[in-house]
Write a structure and sequence with these properties.
147 residues, alpha/beta, Leucine-rich repeat, LRR (right-handed beta-alpha superhelix), five-stranded parallel β-sheet, 7 strands, FBD domain-containing protein, signal, At1g61320/At1g61330-like
């Protein structure tokens, strides 16, 4: 995927509903962020395999100067998801808030949002992930929420 695509160059808010075949597919999201230089808010609703820990390539090294908020729904706490969250924290200088949720929502046939909980993150796991991520932020004002 090219580093900059004209159709994404003016996006300020982006919601992605993605189903990953392998965890390495999270790097695709990193490349999409790279193609959105003005992106202010990213909401990722992810469906991914439970136990596949396949490695991908390298993460892009670009800094995201406008990104202020990130929500990641469907988080299972896999190593690759933690790497993605760490990547965002390390490259978003203006980041103010990152929310990570194990539940995710979909729009159902009755035109309403429906929450799904396939995976429940235990308090101890939440604390361990928080410890791994909290010191990674490039921005000194990030609020990190893990539920």
């Amino acid at each position: 995927m090219p580093a900059k695509m004209n159709m994404f160059s003016n996006l300020t808010m982006l919601t992605l509903l993605m189903t990953f075949k392998v965890q390495a597919d999270l790097q695709t999201v990193a490349h999409i962020i790279d193609a959105c230089p003005l992106l202010d808010l990213l909401h990722l609703l992810a469906r991914s395999p439970r136990y596949i820990e396949q490695r991908g390539g390298t993460w892009p090294c670009r800094h995201h100067s406008h990104l202020k908020g990130v929500a990641f729904d469907g988080f299972r706490g896999t190593r690759y998801e933690i790497e993605f969250a760490s990547y965002v924290l390390q490259t978003a200088a203006a980041l103010e808030k990152m929310c990570i949720y194990s539940k995710y929502g979909t729009f159902n046939e009755h035109f309403r949002w429906q929450d799904h909980v396939d995976y429940v993150m235990k308090n101890e796991g939440r604390r361990l992930i928080y410890k791994q991520l909290v010191g990674q932020a490039l921005s000194g004002k990030v609020e990190l929420i893990i539920e």
